[in-house]
Amino acid sequence: MSAIDPAALRGARVLVAGDVMLDRYWHGEVERISPEAPVPVVRMNAEELRLGGAANVARNVAALGAACTLAGIIGEDEGGERIAGLLAQAGVTDALVRDAVAPTTVKLRISGRGQQMLRVDCESEPSCAALDKLHDALAGQVAGCGVLVLSDYAKGGLARVGELIALGKGAGRQVLVDPKGRDFTIYRGADLLTPNQAELTAVIGRWADEAELEQRVRQLMTELEIGALLLTRSERGLTLFDAAGRHDERATVREVYDVTGAGDTVIAAVAVLLAAGCPLRVAAALANRAGGIVVGRFGAATVSAEELLEG
């Protein structure tokens, strides 16, 4: 695996589309209870902004040295401008659609003394006009990419995901999907799905053993005409089901500090490696390494090409 040339990653081109979010953090101190209601008063002393959802996938792609374009829907508001600025800092090309009706999806987390106390979500379904523009944006970008990644966080940005899969397949591109929800039929025809264990369980039910897991996954892949399925399994690593059979990769992390964004890192690594010409099983093994690196760090971390390929 270490024989892969980092220059190949720098030559890779990945198009990411999906639910774009801004993660906003307010940090402060708690010293008293409000006289208006029995709630703590947080005196804010710091704000932190991070890219979330599909934007974090794009950030991870760019961190690996690949050329990345992000298509998604944001509002014509302050949150959208912050996302555009963070993407520019991360080296991601902005192909975002500005929705004149719906606001940018923002998750505000308020913490005091290092402990999260409250999360406030600001979100709304994107307008039909914005979804039309997103389709047009992808149609104009897909020919220039090697791999198309669709990152679904169930916020409405991929309401027409079937059409977007067809766009990618029609252009001869590999289509990778990070799915959400109980209905995977909307992802029919994708080359690769990357659910975590909870997401897959919600679709195929609980399995008694590994043989039953494989039987149910194979049935799902056949029914939905899915090329492969990469199951991320937290401390157990990941399992790839493809045309050649089954391949397990054990987790490499020694200590887990934060699982935030680990799934984003995994699909980003797979996308970059496939776009660079790596076989899927090699890409899965290296993506497992990438996931192990980021969960050993605090916050939504990224991995560099040098870290991914060393060893």
Overview of the molecule:
This protein has 311 residues and is an alpha/beta fold. The chain is 35% helix and 29% strand. The chain is built from 10 helices and 14 strands. It has helices spanning 6-10, 54-63, 78-90, 128-141, 161-170, 197-204, 210-224, 262-275, 280-294, 305-309, and strands at 13-18, 20-33, 40-53, 67-75, 93-94, 97-99, 105-112, 115-122, 147-151, 174-178, 192-193, 228-232, 238-242, 245-249. A hairpin with a 5-residue loop joins strand 12 (228-232) and strand 13. The radius of gyration is 20 Å and the shape is globular. The termini are close together. The relative contact order is 0.15.
Keywords:
311 residues; alpha/beta; ten-stranded mixed beta sheet; four-stranded mixed beta sheet; 14 strands; 35% helix; 29% strand
Gist?
The protein has 311 residues and is α/β, with parallel strands linked by helices. It has helices spanning 6-10, 54-63, 78-90, 128-141, 161-170, 197-204, 210-224, 262-275, 280-294, 305-309; strands at 13-18, 20-33, 40-53, 67-75, 93-94, 97-99, 105-112, 115-122, 147-151, 174-178, 192-193, 228-232, 238-242, 245-249.
Question: What portion of the residues fall into strands of 2 or more residues?
Answer: 25-35%
- N/C terminus separation: 8 Å
Largest sheet: 10 strands, mixed
Query: How many helices does DSSP assign?
Result: 10
Cα Rg? 20 Å
Spans of 5+ residues with little confidence (pLDDT < 50)? none
Tell me roughly what share of residues is in helical segments: 25-40%
Helix-strand string: HEEEHEHEEEEHEHEEHHEEEHHH
| Number of beta strands | 14
Structural class: alpha/beta
Average pLDDT for all residues: 93
Shape descriptor: globular
